[in-house]
Specification:
By secondary structure, this protein is of the alpha+beta class. It has two domains: about 300 residues, no CATH class; about 45 residues, no CATH class. The chain is about 55% helix and about 5% strand. It contains 16 helices and seven strands. The strands form two sheets. A five-stranded antiparallel beta sheet has the order 3-4-5-6-7, with no helix packed on it. The protein has a two-stranded parallel sheet with strand order 1-2. Helix 11 crosses helix 16. The longest helix is centred in the middle third of the chain and has 27 residues. The protein is globular and about 65 Å long. The two termini are about 25 Å apart. About 35% of the residues are buried.
Length: about 350
Amino acid sequence: MKSLQTFGWYAARIAPHLPKDVFKPVPSRLFGGLVHLLISITGIVAISVFNLNPFINLAIGILIGTSSASMGFLGHEILHGTVVRKSWLRDLLGAVAFWPLSTGPRLWRKWHNMNHHLHTQHEEHDPDAWPSMKQFVKNRLLRSIYRLPFTIRAIANFCSLTITFTVHSARMFIVYLKDFKPTKRPVVWLECVLPWSTWIGLLFIIGPIKWLFAFLIPLLIANFIVMAYISTNHRLNPLTPINDPLANSLTVTVPKWVDALHFNFSYHAEHHLFPGINPKYYPLVKTHIKRMWPERYHEMPLWKALIALWKTPRIYYEQHKLIDPHQGKVYGSLGNGLEPSKINFRKVDKKGKTLHRDA
């Protein structure tokens, strides 16, 4: 692993080369969000009011799901303060954008902005980091899961992307609720309960079949799209004791029209260097990173990153490696021997001694 630097170290060297305008909020991004909001509302109303063919309902549900994911990406942008600056307006718009995913703005800022961004890929302090061997041996459920054949685990892993964001968000609510001041907790509860009340209320109004198309299928699709990015943001990178975004974050590449649809969420190393800059300007930040530190920067097509995730385990070994514990197969991480186009492993015994290298 190369010597690590903090995100501030990189940012201080890039910032002088950026126009001052990039540090200003970009409220025009809300127009894209309005389009996705109208698509979602129109789709839900159409499914609820009309008795449409199930295949038409499914097509509308898919459209709602893709728009819900895009709204989530915009909500992430809004709650970093890069769209509007006023705190009450930021939280209101962030709540609306995250409504389909039922995540409150205050919880998101606590969990994501404060903890994930400050402690990215830290073994103990990043709430989104995957477990190390030290944590693995203490977790009976995880040990049981890793006794399953690799292929079954890989399939289950990818299927679980359809629910992971929702489940993890609920877990973060439980973890961080106690960290809010007692006077703030009722608001945090309200931000959690209101979206779910909307969706459960919709179930009783339109019935389970229409609700399946209007909410459940879109939720699964939104989860999958959001997690396709989130799962590749860091899970191929090493754990790092110093928050170095060029070591612990991956930028994925997608077609330009997808970037437009998803508000440039693919530029993830750039986001961790400058979370206060609107993603509209991340292509410019990327140009400077690749000019200054091309050997440190990690990027690859999203599809390639997902395949690499499929082929590797998610337990960290010695921080910069990945291990399949029961099989004793050790893989590299990005910057530490992992080659996505040809993934190899070495087999180790319980003492860490190499027994075999995959050709």
